[in-house]
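User: Protein folding is very new to me. Would you mind checking the protein record under this note? It all follows right here:
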Amino acid sequence: MRILFMVISVAAIFTFCRKKELTFTINGVVSDLTFSGVSSGVQVKLFVTPLGESEDLVKTATTGSDGVFEFVIDRERIEKVRLTYQKTNYFQEERVIFFSDLQVNEDNDASQSMIAKSWVRFQIFNQAPASASDEFKLFKYRGKEDCAECCPIGNSYYYGAVDTAVVCPNGANSYTSYYYWVTNTQIYGQDSVYTTPFDTVTVNFVY
């Protein structure tokens, strides 16, 4: 009976150690670059891509007042994991960790910082169009550009009887800078606007 008990105990210990080795822990802290602190209320999603298969959403967590999140997943052969970080009026961030970089015996740090949104609204109005070939050029050369909804760096062209608004998201507490000109006229210039968190600055072009 004593020998049997020892065998069962050893088996139980081996199973427990084996179980510990078969998980990955992915955790971290989400920080708020705009307000210089941690960020609560961030929804963190964990996607896993198994070998030769499509990506699946496997877990979701929301940061508390300490900005901390944690995921524990089974250790298996996968291509990668991807985390997305989402919060209202903040730019979404993401992080990819490949299988070869995942550690078994220690935490995998996936800490991330986030920036609050602000916006620049360019209101463009041709009040006396001469023809459909009237051309207004807006060249953005500074401002946030690395997001799906961001206005790209470069030229935008508007023709004829224009009456439109273009809204460009920007990182809070930073500048959007631009040139503008109406072709074949003396209407041109260069300027910058500073955007504060969660606010919209309107720039009017009337020609």
The chain has two domains: 20-114, 118-206. The chain has one helix and 16 strands. The radius of gyration is 26 Å. The longest strand covers residues 23-32.
